[in-house]
């Protein structure tokens, strides 16, 4: 879990941005088929994103986690959806639970100053919810680059992050296999931010290539994927497909916002 900035320290602009992001988030959990579907399947894994947990000492570090909660009551319940200002290159992140904590105590960061529309927030939130699903379902070892790459591939593909509209906004106008190209590109950028990669572009690209076919084909909890995936009328979690990269539980998770380059603006 991470802790949001105390409200009394917010600037007027930060308050407006936070409240706007909070309003959009609430609307998406009520009206978005994608967000509601992911929330349902997270809840089935005992990782309900809308429940609150007792406030604990800061257990994650990120560009936003230097904010402390010394002025918050220790007993005040803490949201798993953290809305806070972030550096200019990111829109969101996922903070995995500690090895000694239940996976339900993970959290999602939504960057209030980098979310430009409700549809952008929907893609960002969906992306991070796929990571949370993987963390709860497969007990991902985030220090294992193959595990991390697999989750990044799935999140970029399933969330709408690589849909035609988003790619057009990024001025990536290709048509032939553009969805796959986008997924690979964004997965590589995220792997580069993993300390285990040490910023080595060749390692990042090779790792993504090694797991791409299996992980791109793994659409759980969806039945299938398109450029803008939505659940079928009878969605189900597939229990036996494509478990190539998620096979072991690890006690060596990286306790940080692993996806700070995950929902990149560009």
What does this structure look like?
By secondary structure, the chain is mainly α. It has one domain. 39% of the residues lie in helices and 7% in strands. The chain is built from seven helices and five strands, in the order ααβββββααααα. The strands form two sheets. A three-stranded mixed sheet has the order 3-5-4. Helix 3 packs across helix 4. It is globular, with a radius of gyration of 17 Å. The two termini are 26 Å apart. The relative contact order is 0.17. InterPro entries: Peptidase_M76_ATP23. It is a peripheral membrane protein. Its EC number is 3.4.24.-.
Describe the secondary structure blueprint for this structure:
Blueprint lengths: L11 H20 L1 H12 L7 E3 L22 E3 L1 E4 L7 E4 L11 E5 L6 H21 L6 H14 L5 H6 L8 H15 L8 H17 L49
Parallel strand pairs: 3-5
Antiparallel strand pairs: 1-2, 4-5
Name a few traits of the molecule.
about 270 residues; mainly alpha; three-stranded mixed β-sheet; 5 strands; about 40% helix; disordered C terminus; hydrolase; Peptidase_M76_ATP23; protease
Please give a quick description of this structure.
The protein has helices at residues 12-31, 33-44, 118-138, 145-158, 164-169, 178-192, 201-217, and strands at 52-54, 77-79, 81-84, 92-95, 107-111. By secondary structure, the protein is mainly alpha-helical.
